[in-house]
Amino acid sequence: MIVYVIVAVLFFGVLVGIHEFGHFAVAKACGIRVEEFSVGMGPAIFKKQKGETLYSLRCIPFGGYCAMTGEDGESDDPRAFVNQKIWKRLLVLVAGSFMNFLLGFVIVFCLYAGAVGYPVPVIASFMDGCPYETAEAFQAGDRIVRIDGHRIYSTSDIGDYLRENTRQNFVIVRNGEKLKLDGLLMQKQDYEQEDGSTGQYYGFRLGYAMEEANFFSHVRATWDQTMEFVRLVWKSLGMLIHGEATVKDLSGPVGIVEVMAETGENAESTTDAISNIAYLGAFIAVNLAVMNMLPIPALDGGRVFLLLVTAAIEAITRKKLNPKYEGAIHATGMALLLALMAFVMINDVVRIFHHG
Q1: Which residues are catalytic?
Q2: The predicted structure's pLDDT at residue 111
Q3: pLDDT at residue number 42
């Protein structure tokens, strides 16, 4: 168990390091002065001054930062962040999340390296009397690609987006040709199953067909899985907003480390443990990328949002706004974010001891 805990903690260090490296690399490429690049928080284990930048490794792996001159206030330095063109600042701000997303993509790509084929969702067969078994609707072997604009990655997605008594638009692939089926009225009916039971169904059975693995299908399958991670994050946020989940259901670094350790511990072999932890790690990396781009003060998404709002106001008023106001908003947001993180961490610890 302790081995998997160490692996999980190290992975968090990688997550933070690659996120901050994204900010750092783009800032350097744009000529912005970086005062310190740190992986981890708290007291420094290692420090090295190289040129104008201090590089440090700190003892708490759940954090890090890329400190740029003029990041949250005015500065006379022409190389300060605040004095750069808007496109440069936007690139720096999104670079961290992009690197996390890229990490998740690369992990999935590596996990799929040995695949000989990829399952794609298709209509396998129909129940007797199904009204959708027509040339104008579905045929056995049709691959459902989209439902009302939603990309379909697996058969579970089909169930999520089908709506009874609603006219829906489908995009399917039939015999290699992409077709549109617009305005199909989806209604369930009573059907008898092979075991004699009856129930309400749409009348078609879903299954999988195998797509031969090659470089392009490999990249496409990796992209589809990564985007499925993004969709799961948005669904979780939707549950939080609609009250289907509460703040107590959130997990922070402590809770996630526990889940990753349990994932490794419950695997049947070391190979399975590594694979399962890597898969979970890819999801966490993508999760962090999405969450960090939410328009919340102190997060990169909040900084992007306020940067665009500030730019719009300055373009209209022809006056430059004082950066200290934006800095104050981010400082307040950071205080609230730290309070939430503390609550989640305490909740994780209590949950662990309660289950223990």
Answers
A1: 20
A2: 92
A3: 86
Q: Supply the pLDDT for residue 344.
A: 61
DSSP letters for 155-208 = HHHHHHH--TTEEEEEEEEETTEEEEEEEEEE--EEEE-TTS-EEEE-SEEEEE
Whole-angstrom distance, CA of residue 289 vs CA of residue 283: 10
Enter the tokens of residue 100: 């996390």
| Model pLDDT, residue 347 | 64
Query: Which neighbouring-strand residues pair with 192?
Result: 198
Side chain identity, residue 271: T
Sign, CA dihedral 73-75-80-82, equals: positive
Give the per-residue pLDDT at 120. 87
- Are the C-beta atoms of 199 and 181 separated by less than 8 Å? no
Rounded to whole angstroms, the Cα distance separating 32 from 87 reads 13
Cα–Cα nearest to 208, from 145, 265, 143, 162: 143
Using alpha carbons, select from 232, 255, 222, 248 the residue that is nearest to residue 8.
Answer: 255
Q: How high is the pLDDT of residue 293? A: 92
- Sorted by sequence, the CB contacts under 8 Å of residue 272 that are 6+ apart come out as none
Average pLDDT along the chain, 356 residues, taken 10 residues at a time: 76 86 95 92 90 90 85 85 92 96 95 88 90 90 93 87 90 92 91 79 89 88 92 82 69 67 78 86 91 86 88 80 69 70 62 58
Rounded Cα gap, residues 213 and 117, in angstroms? 4
User: CA triplet 102, 112, 210: central angle to 5 degrees?
Assistant: 125
In single-letter form, the type of residue at position 94 comes to V
Distance CA 244, CA 343 (A): 19
Task: Please tell me the distance from the alpha carbon of residue 293 to that of residue 353, in angstroms, as a whole number.
Answer: 33
Domains of the chain: 2-111+264-355 (no CATH), 117-212 (2.30.42.10)
**Lookup: tokens for 84:** 């750069």
